[in-house]
Specification:
The chain contains one helix and seven strands; from the N terminus they run βββαββββ. It is of the alpha+beta class and 133 residues long. The longest helix has 24 residues.
Amino acid sequence: ESGECAAPFKLTRFHEGHKMLAHGGVTAAILDETMGYANHVFEYFNRDSYCYVFTGTATYEYLVPVPVGKDMLALAKVEEEEGRVRHITGEIIDEDGLIYVRSKAVYVTAKALEDIHIDVGMLPLEEGDPEEL
């Protein structure tokens, strides 16, 4: 109900930016997904519905390089709600609580499905694509 969630992860050499260190874009994507999920959880428990949510703005503060091969945790929390706008924070930490990356983001929910202007049926299916979304 609080809009908090956590996502454990361990990166591999495929996620390197520098040798044995994660690429910043990978860690940003992890935080973006975790913060977006916190928004969905908040919406579900407090509105009993599911919403389409989009990242409006996001900032990332890289405090310590994130190592590959180490168990990490992405945390996210809905801090404030202003109508369709939610302010969400996120962190990547290790098992000792050391903060590696910190993020603040603004997410916006669509008023209605029509607002997102996506026609799923526009693109033809290719081999291996799911038949239904």
